[in-house]
Amino acid sequence: MKPYHFLSSLLFCSCFSVSPAALAESESKNQYTQTVTRTVLAEGLPEAAPNQILELVRYEIPPFATLPPHIHPGLQIARVEFGLLTYAVIEGTALITRTDGTKETLTAGQKTLLKPGDAVTESEGMVHFGQNETPDPVILLATSLLTVGEPKAILIEE
């Protein structure tokens, strides 16, 4: 698998400006980016983590959307607020925390169904993807600690 950067904003970003040629190239690689909404609710530059940005983000994944395999260049923790998300790990390990506090480890090749109240901790470089296989949107709240100026996610070419 080969990583490639997708715009310096984020693979889920709904508000960005790029040249028509760059947009056409990104659309051919990743059709869903125009439908998944990423809204930054708050952000800050922690003094204890120089050159890092901490963000609180709301994602809305539309019905029947499949996110492509990707990684995050830092730590991300996400919680399902609404809907059902099928979540799969391709490489690495994710920590799942269920609503009742039960912790599970998801490794390469494994999938799980994340329900409202469930959370996932994604370590840097873990290859994963999600699918909304329902007629309802999925709403996630996520916090990320990433390097300033880096893309929020990097798509993985299989």
Pick out its properties:
3-stranded antiparallel sheet, mainly beta, disordered N terminus, 1 helix, 158 residues, single chain
Characterize the structure shown.
This protein is mainly beta. Helix content is 6%, strand content 49%. The chain has one helix and 13 strands, in the order βαββββββββββββ. The chain has a seven-stranded antiparallel β-sheet with strand order 2-3-12-5-10-7-8, with no helix packed on it. Strand 2 (37-44) and strand 3 form a beta hairpin. It is globular, with a radius of gyration of 15 Å. The termini are close together.
Topology:
Elements: E1 2-5, H1 20-29, E2 37-44, E3 52-61, E4 70-71, E5 74-82, E6 85-91, E7 93-97, E8 103-107, E9 111-114, E10 119-122, E11 127-131, E12 138-147, E13 154-157
Overall spatial form: globular
Question: Tell me about the biggest sheet?
Answer: 7 strands, antiparallel
Low-confidence stretches: 2-32
Radius of gyration in whole Å, from Cα?
15 Å
Element order, helices and strands?
A: EHEEEEEEEEEEEE
User: DSSP strand (E) fraction?
Assistant: over 45%
- The chain-level mean pLDDT equals 82
Side-by-side strand order of the widest sheet: 2-3-12-5-10-7-8
- What's the number of helices? 1
Q: Kindly state the percentage of residues in helix.
A: under 10%
The secondary-structure class comes to mainly beta
DSSP summary, beta strand count: 13
State the separation between the terminal residues, measured CA to CA: 5 Å
